Amino acid sequence: MRAAVYLVATPIGNLEDITLRAIRTLRECDLIACEDTRHTRKLLNRYEIQKPLISCHEHNEHERANQIIERVQSGQAVAIVSDAGLPGISDPGYRVVQAAIAAGVRVIPIPGPSAVDTAVVASGLPTDSFLYAGFLPAKSGQRIKALDALAAEKATLVFYEAPHRLLRALADAQSVLGNRQAVVARELTKTHEEFLRGTLAEIHADLAARESVRGEIVLLIAGTDDAPAVDPEVPLSARVEQLVAEGASPMDAVKTAAKEYGVSKRKAYNLVEQEKS
Ligand code: SAM
Fold this sequence. Notes:
Number of helices: 11
Strand content: 15-25%
Number of domains: 3
Strand order of the largest sheet: 3-2-4-1-5
Order of helices and strands: EHEHEHEHEHEHEHEEHEHHH
CATH architecture of the largest domain: 3-Layer(aba) Sandwich
Structural class: alpha/beta
CATH superfamily of the largest domain: Tetrapyrrole methylase, N-terminal domain
Oligomer: single chain
Radius of gyration: 23 Å
Shape: elongated
Largest sheet: 5 strands, parallel
CATH topology of the largest domain: Cobalt-precorrin-4 Transmethylase, domain 1
Bound molecules: S-adenosylmethionine
Number of strands: 10
Distance between the termini: 65 Å
């Protein structure tokens, strides 16, 4: 097997979701670098693969990267796997790839499942363009800022979310983005796989009525569908003034202008304040 760093996708739930090429790579490589050796050992046992393992997780990826590159430079094939899905997608892998490229070492992706695209394709939300934004920040203030920065995005928004934060994330998303269509994809490829589709408020109400929210979760939110039918010469604050002059309340004027300009209400308020000064 040629010396290289192999990025090997592994199942995100159902252990049958692994490609023949991934199995062959794991069987033929010299070393497997994995997030959690016990977790990966279970997968390898299932396919009767015995290989030396080393850990490569978020706390040691930096130093491991150099060791992995040295191994490849000495002629070895090193497979990188994470606990689930594609290494490098909200998982270790990026630093090893960077180090490999810097050292002129070949990187070979072995594609397979990832929760992002698995959720997108079955969500029913537009798939022609989607923006994967990783995990939303855990703190509400930062989460609101992150959502606000995506408010004008037309592409379907995709996030990974922890179950205990999901209700708060749904509530923040509704307050920042409005009550958009959304999907919660839970436990993909597993026995209790579930898709909750509806508005952010409907999904929130459904989940809030449950005893608890559990499992692994992908949250998808429709992008903004408001074509900015605005005159680029007219600043947002002028449009707000115009709407007020036409009889709208200042609050409704900001809301309408925010929609027309494809920005969140909060951003519209800030723009009005900035443009005033
Ligand atoms: N590398 C992985 C990938 O390619 O999808 C993602 C790893 S990230 C640390 C783990 C997060 O991915 C989970 O917290 C969850 O948000 C999402 N995820 C992973 N497996 C999932 C599944 N079976 N169903 C729903 N979401 C999943």
